[in-house]
Amino acid sequence: MTETPVPTAVVAADGAVDGEAADWGPLSSLPGNPMMWILILGELAAFGAMFIGFAVARALDPATFDASQAQLDRLLGGMNTMVLVTSGWLVAVAVRRRASGRSYRAAMLGAMALGGLFLAIKAVEYGDKIGRDLTLETNSFFQLYYLLTGFHAMHVAAGIVILGIVTWWDSLENLETGAAFWHMVDLIWVLLYPIVYLLR
User: Which residues cross the membrane (predicted)?
Assistant: First the structure.
């Protein structure tokens, strides 16, 4: 007697079975791949912990933090804020254009170029600080300054690579996934700039 073969369910990388969409709960309604949103939540938690650490360190030594903060270049920090926010806007434009079937790569290239400009401005800022002997060994403020801004700069660099990949890998979901990461990078800087450069 011949046995009837039992169909084997195919499980996709995102947890979907036999072509069905995986249930990620609230994450399922967000644009892009839910796995990216899990990563984003983890990154936001990490930066949140560092912001709390910065606030505690400031409370313990406000005089040192105020004097050290005065050594920062608010103009360059403000320029970088405008650069990154504009880059995020271009990514949003690209997603809308791709969703409507229009050309979107020029907007993505512009966003990546602005990301590169952000890193260039940050390099100028670091060069100025190091030239004035304001380094990791100066005090706790500059240790946290380099930690926060350096960790964020690493995310900007990673984000540029991600944007490049999703620009040429033509898929709306991929584009939305990359856009979600880039908007996280924007959000973190919008919080970091006033916390580190402005608030006293």
Answer: 35-60, 72-92, 104-124, 144-169, 181-199
